[in-house]
Amino acid sequence: MSDNVLEKHIVGVKGIGKQKALKFAEMGINTLEDLFNYFPYRYDDFRIKDLTVANHGDKVTVEGEIYTEPLVKRLSNKRNLISVKVVVDSLIITATWFNRMFLKNQLKRGRKILLTGKWDKNRLQITVAESEFLDNSTNSKKGNLLPVYSLPQDFKQNGFRNIMNNALIQCYHSIDDFLPMDIIQKYKLYNLRDAYRGIHFPKDYQDGKLARRRLVYDELLLYQLRLQIYKMNNRQNWPGIARKIDREKINIFVESLPFKLTEAQIRVLDEILFDMEKDYAMNRLLQGDVGSGKTVVAAVALYANYLSGFQGALMVPTEILAEQHLESLRTLLAPLGLEIALLTGKLTTSNRKNVLAQLQMGIVDIVVGTHALIQEDVYFKNLGLVITDEQHRFGVEQRAILRRKGNDKTPDVLFMTATPIPRTLAITAFGDMDVSTIDELPLGRKKIETYWVKPDAFSRVLEFIDKQINLGRQAYVICPLIEESDKLDVQNAIDIHALLSDHFPNFRVGLLHGRLSSKEKDEVMTQFKDNKINILVSTTVVEVGVNVPNATVMVIYDAERFGLAQLHQLRGRVGRGSNQSYCILLADPKSEIGKERMRVMVETNDGFEIARRDLKLRGPGDLFGVKQSGVPDFKLADLINDYRTLEVARSDAEKWVISGELWKNSKWNKLLKKLKQLGVFEKQTIDG
Ligand code: ADP
Ligand code: MG
Q: Looking at ligand 1, which atom is closest to the CA of residue 294?
């Protein structure tokens, strides 16, 4: 048995017998630590209020003496009212209860009573929500801020509070702190026992706040330590390729591009090349808004990888994207002598065999492909760099498979995403990765003009589409989203397709939705790319990375149903050519959040700004692309309001792990023990 009281089982706490312990176990509470970590979600305030300064309508608690016999009033069959006069300090007030007839015999003149309820300043009256006789009460609420817990049905707040209180009293002095004293002092943190006491039974709000502050730091620190240790283990267990980077040749290539790289592109390239030179395997996330120029960065990295003697792979989620990337990479790199091949599910058997052989022999330098890349029979001669685009579209396991296709050394891996993630989230969700951010668009990009219109103005939208198409441009029309029902989505798309085909007999209207085979989808997209389709009616399947520069109009039905990040992604399908582009949001949002989303879209084109505002509106859990990547559900910490603490915890964890301090100085022993108990050192597989 451990000597750490927190690890002890709760049986033995006054009020918890064997039977009760089983019920606690159902709530995930076994040890004292589990119990103390069961935090209240709010507090009830039973501190005595001075009525002479209380505002009308305030919830107040007062102490007084009953002055009259109770008066009972029948309001209806079911409702009755009972009232007495009570002397509170120098005031005589009326206390009234609804439907509390059982109090009638207890409300005796002269009894001391605690009243909590709503204060009516004009009538000097309290409508009582809770009351307590003070003459026979041992465990009075009087004067306290009392915790309110989220509890299963058969638990009572009072009972749970008492148990929590007993447990705290019983072991307060034996609660051992796992943080070293100097850290506690440095940040002026509460020690652990006062943090537990203060979060459950705060003396006042300040006390509760300081208790929470300590526990939030703990929560974030432990999480960040886990990530940093995980990252360190990966680097040790998966030795990467320490290679020479031919900067001279790379500079010549960069100089030869038709445009100058932006500062941000140069910076992220440096970060990537730095990792590639090191003897650990790169594990880096490259994020940049739609159109920020990630592809050319990927191309330079692939070129550097080629120059150092290795093959590269670029994995994308759809065939259309694969073909698009193949084209861009060939334009950039084929003139330098690189062999670039495509590997998708569409290849004929003999073509596929051919590509596979060339990959295995090292004839192909770069392969661009879909899931087809991670089939078992795909072998590389010497894979050195793996890039995945729109990384959230691939599961963790799929990304890991490609990484394992290297030889004895682990290939470097770069994940690219056009879904900007605010820094607090990035270092939480992807904390074991390094993050590079392109936070600047190439010069001269035109802002996509965005309009929010009510659905009844649809005829004007049709006129607008008409004009643009007569100018030779193309339009997307994104259909309403029916939650949970792919079938209805498709039906919507079919209906709107029919409606637009009717309205525009002289235009070609195409239709794209998830029920089409990938071959059919490709055909439609190719026709749209070649301007053989003027208007493309689609469900959200067009969302990712598709590049049709001639499309200048994006109409989104029921825009309020989409998340901000998704709206931004959809909007990013236009504005890719030299012509002014437009995004029209058809929406009649009822909720404030819905309206705010529309405003944000109209106000800004900046993906990072949108992500920040999205985070504020919705909280981190829902953020597109983050869901699967596992932002944990913190018990206390809140990624928006506690971001400073997060930054501190992050840099502390990084420092202590990288320097090895955590293992060198015995003052960390208790923390290490705790991490061990949390399973941080158990063997884990790469990627996460
Ligand atoms: P994304 O980040 O969305 O993948 P792309 O790589 O497709 O963006 O780039 C969008 C377009 O911008 C491409 O046509 C690309 O050639 C061009 N581009 C990239 N970098 C620059 C730059 N520094 N200056 C001007 N144009 C650029
Ligand atoms: Mg490396």
A: 2
Minimal-distance CA residue to ligand 1 atom 18 = 293
Sign for the pseudo-dihedral over CA of 26, 28, 34, 35: negative
How many percent of the chain have pLDDT more than 70? 92
| Substitution candidate for ligand 1 out of 289, 290, 292 with most atoms within 8 A of CB | 292
Q: Which two tokens mark 70? A: 């109770």
3-state secondary structure of 586: strand
| List of domains in the chain | 47-143 (2.40.50.140), 247-438 (3.40.50.300), 449-604 (3.40.50.300)
- Residue 649: is it exposed, middle or buried by C-beta count within 10 angstroms (0-12/13-18/19+)? buried
Closest C-alpha to 40, from 233, 281, 203, 212: 212
Phi first, then psi, for residue 146 (nearest 5°) are: -110, 135
Q: Which two tokens stand for residue 633?
A: 């559900």
Handedness of CA 187, 191, 196, 202 (dihedral sign): negative
pLDDT value of residue 113? 95
Residue having the nearest C-alpha atom to atom 26 of ligand 1:
442
State the distance from the centre of ligand 2 to the C-alpha of 279, rounded, in angstroms: 5
- Nearest ligand atom owner, CA of 238: 2
CA of 264 to the centre of ligand 1 (A): 12
User: Ligand 1 centroid vs 441 CA: distance in angstroms?
Assistant: 8
- Whose tokens are 């309110």? That residue is 148
Contact 597, 470 (CB under 8 A): no
Q: Which residue is closest in CA terms to ligand 1's atom 1? A: 291
Report whether pLDDT(258) > 60: yes
Atom of ligand 1 nearest to the CA of 288: 2
The CB density around residue 673, as the number of other CB atoms within 10 Å, is: 14
Q: Is the CB of 61 under 6 A from ligand 1?
A: no
Q: Tell me: the pLDDT tens digits for 429-481?
A: 667 778 899 988 888 788 999 999 998 898 999 999 999 999 999 999 998 76
70, 106 contact by CB (below 8 A)? no
Cα(342) to centroid of ligand 1, in Å?
21
pLDDT digits (tens, 9 = 90+) for 148-183: 999 998 899 989 999 999 999 999 999 999 999 999
Read off the pLDDT of residues 102-132 as tens digits, 9 standing for 90 and up: 999 999 999 999 999 999 999 999 999 999 9
How far, in Å, CA of 467 to CA of 164, rounded?
Answer: 70
Look at strands 383-389 and 311-315 and give their pairing. Answer: parallel
On the question of pLDDT at 687 being above 70, the answer is no
pLDDT band at 486 (very low <50, low <70, confident <90, very high): low
| Exposed / middle / buried, residue 289 (Cβ in 10 Å: 0-12, 13-18, 19+) | buried
How far from chain centre, in Å, is Cα 300? 31
Report every protein residue that has its C-beta within 5 angstroms of ion ligand 2: 240-241, 276, 278, 412
- Does the CB atom of residue 607 touch ligand 1 within 6 A? no
